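Customer escalation, tier 2.

The customer says the design service returned an amino acid string that "doesn't look like it belongs to this structure." They asked us to rerun it and document both sides in this ticket. The original structure tokens are below, unchanged.
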């Protein structure tokens, strides 16, 4: 805790920065937080306030700068102080023994080895001066790379201020990676927002480094793993020491590295990680073996491209041979067509593989794929394996070649392929079932209209049967129409209709998000709603006005203008408006305390009331952030019971032990609590 009294503003700011950096390190590097997120956020806002009020103390390396915001149109090319070499590769024990023999020709003393994991991401060189991050540069051609400092600052595991043994300038080398779980949740988010998913963590990490908007980078779950210090003005004797020093300075240096005193031990390290690599939180594509003594490293020196004192050992991509049974085509939410190979099930890297991705038409053509082919599948960084080659010598003479489909498998519309793009699209945005289904799914999701009681299967069933063609149609659904659907009882139909009705209370920014406009995610929708207040003003906004809003760039502005230029979209908005959806921000959008009193509670309203109609009572519950549901279940919080409540309902409530409130008791509840 910081003792604030008697401190000057500058001292307070410095103390807060240091303390926040410490907690940041505990959280993102050590994985051992000692304070709650809430406390951290509170401390961060105090610092933000102080910095805002005292701009003369601005520091690009303040923890407040982690959120990004600066836009870099062109990354500057800068020369590395120390060249970034590549690594020689080996694939077998023999390769490694050859390497060892070459080393012992030049070094006539015993050598030890440092065995490290080979992190699969994008290489980065970070320069520090006066203990402060000065710049971050990509490898480029090894001599010069792109300066991406603004983006690097947003990566929380990169310390902005370090406790270095010397204030002089030095470089630290590492790899920017995305963990498997970070990658999965990023893709989850993208799926929910109807955006194309990323293919693998490595490309996503290196692509993220080159984004122009650093605020966008801040949202990507990137991590930086370090393995080398270059140009240090202090003494470092071994690679092992180097790793320890880097760790002590606050860098994230994985703990898996091990010393080996001979090749046998090196091979044991390799064998271990070849099997256990899948258990790591991030991807590796091999291991790197380094001569541990820096003195020996100096004797060995470099070839034109790589150090003689290090060797990468690349794991064999795990592959298997199987038969191609069929090719099916999936239609995504945006209409993109993905061909998928159906395979004879085969064991690969511990899982049974039945499908492989084929990416696009070019890929099929390149492989010259025929039905019934014997194919080699490989599990690389991608989540689903891919076909890498075909054993043409095993192909039957009468095998039929796989030709790409010309029409959408779901709606039979002729597919289009935009110039310069590899992907085929179904252009039938408005009527193609998976595209409609995808948009509806997004519309009803929790962060959008939050409509309960509608699963993915029910949605596609309703679309298939022509019950709905658009999310606006949800508001026309009647209980009778729903009951005939598979697995839809009267109760669930009632719940669904009620859920749809409740959703008209969702505030404007959620409705705006629910519309599923490309690139308009949750936060963007909030900012737009705040800036323009109503859908009509938003629609009339010029490009400049849009870009004038915080966080809104050219891409989003363009997407909004395209969206509003389409009459069908406008017609849909008008329908939603007619059904009662909110297209204006209410002044009291941030709910007052009393209006949140029933939040998290769900109510069943039954019977006839004296002072109020049933509909009014329901509205009252919703106005206090409660939820109205159609039927009693274990999850119901209260039943508000009026006269003539059905005996079966009463029995059910009693059986489940759901408390029943009279009209009077309900009024007391909101009055007392308010
Ligand atoms: P390559 O790209 O195949 O030439 O391999 C060289 C790259 O491997 C370097 O640029 C590093 O970014 C990366 N690498 C990953 N892990 C390590 C590590 N532990 N030591 C050295 N380089 C590594
Ligand atoms: Zn289609």
């Amino acid at each position: 805790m910081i003792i604030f009294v008697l401190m000057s503003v500058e001292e307070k700011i410095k103390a807060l920065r240091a303390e926040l950096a410490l907690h940041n390190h505990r959280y993102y590097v050590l994985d051992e937080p000692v304070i709650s997120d809430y406390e951290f956020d509170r401390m961060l806002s105090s610092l933000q306030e102080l910095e805002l009020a005292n701009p003369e103390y601005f520091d690009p390396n303040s923890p407040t700068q982690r959120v990004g915001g600066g836009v870099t149109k062109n990354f500057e090319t800068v020369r590395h102080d120390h060249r970034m070499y590549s690594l020689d590769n080996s694939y077998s024990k023999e390769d490694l023994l050859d390497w060892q023999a070459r080393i012992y020709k030049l070094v006539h003393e015993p050598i030890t080895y440092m065995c490290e994991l080979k992190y699969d991401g994008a290489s980065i060189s970070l320069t520090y001066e006066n203990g402060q991050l000065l710049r971050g540069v990509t490898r480029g051609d090894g001599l010069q790379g792109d300066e991406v400092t603004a983006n690097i600052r947003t990566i929380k595991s990169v310390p902005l201020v370090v406790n270095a043994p010397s204030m002089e300038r030095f470089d630290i080398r590492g790899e920017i990676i995305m963990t498997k779980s970070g990658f999965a949740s990023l893709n989850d988010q993208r799926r929910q927002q109807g955006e194309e998913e990323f293919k693998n963590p490595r490309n996503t990490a290196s692509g993220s480094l080159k984004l122009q908007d650093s605020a966008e980078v801040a949202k990507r779950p990137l991590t930086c793993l370090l393995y080398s210090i270059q140009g240090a003005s202090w003494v470092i004797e071994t690679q092992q020491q180097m790793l320890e020093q880097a760790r002590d300075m606050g860098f994230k240096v994985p703990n898996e590295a091990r010393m080996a005193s001979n090749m046998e031990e090196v091979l044991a390290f390799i064998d271990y990680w070849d099997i256990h690599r899948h258990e790591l939180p991030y991807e590796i594509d091999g291991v790197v073996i380094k001569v541990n003594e820096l003195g020996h490293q100096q004797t060995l020196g470099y070839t034109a491209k790589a150090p003689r004192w290090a060797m990468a050992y690349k794991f064999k991509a795990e592959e298997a041979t199987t038969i191609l049974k069929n090719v099916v085509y999936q239609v995504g939410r945006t209409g993109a067509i993905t061909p998928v190979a159906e395979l004879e099930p085969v064991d690969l890297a511990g899982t049974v593989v039945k499908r492989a991705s084929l990416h696009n038409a070019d890929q099929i053509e390149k492989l010259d794929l025929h039905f019934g082919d014997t194919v080699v599948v490989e599990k690389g960084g991608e989540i689903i394996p891919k076909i890498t080659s075909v054993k043409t010598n095993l192909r039957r003479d009468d095998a039929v070649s796989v030709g790409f489909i010309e029409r959408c498998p779901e709606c039979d519309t002729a597919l289009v392929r935009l110039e310069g793009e590899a992907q085929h699209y179904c252009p039938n945005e408005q009527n193609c079932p998976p595209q409609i289904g995808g948009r509806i799914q997004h519309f009803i999701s929790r962060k959008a209209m939050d409509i309960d009681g509608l699963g993915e299967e029910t949605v596609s069933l309703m679309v298939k049967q022509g019950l709905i063609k658009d999310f606006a149609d949800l508001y026309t659904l009647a209980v009778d129409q729903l009951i005939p659907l598979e697995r839809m009882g009267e109760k669930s139909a009632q719940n669904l209709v009620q859920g749809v009705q409740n959703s008209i209370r969702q505030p404007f920014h959620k409705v705006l998000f629910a519309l599923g406009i490309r690139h308009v995610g949750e936060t963007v929708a909030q900012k737009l709603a705040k800036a323009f207040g109503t859908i009509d003003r938003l629609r009339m906004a010029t490009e400049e006005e849009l870009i004038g809003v915080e966080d809104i760039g050219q891409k989003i502005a363009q997407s909004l203008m395209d969206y509003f230029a389409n009459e069908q979209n406008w017609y849909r908005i008008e329908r939603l408006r007619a059904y009662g959806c909110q297209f204006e921000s209410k002044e009291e959008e941030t709910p007052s305390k009393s209006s949140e009193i029933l939040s998290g509670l769900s109510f069943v309203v039954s019977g006839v009331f004296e002072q109020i109609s049933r509909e009014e009572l329901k509205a009252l519950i919703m106005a206090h952030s409660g939820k109205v549901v159609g039927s009693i279940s274990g999850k119901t919080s209260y039943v508000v019971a009026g006269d003539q409540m059905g005996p079966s309902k009463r029995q059910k409530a009693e059986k489940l032990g759901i408390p029943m409130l009279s009209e009077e008791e309900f009024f007391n509840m909101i009055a007392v609590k308010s």
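Tier 2 assessment: The sequence is consistent with the input. The longest strand covers residues 318-331. Residues 86-87, 116, 118-119, 123, 139, 175, 227, 288, 312 surround adenosine monophosphate (ligand 1) (CB under 6 Å). Sent an explanation to the customer and offered a walkthrough call.
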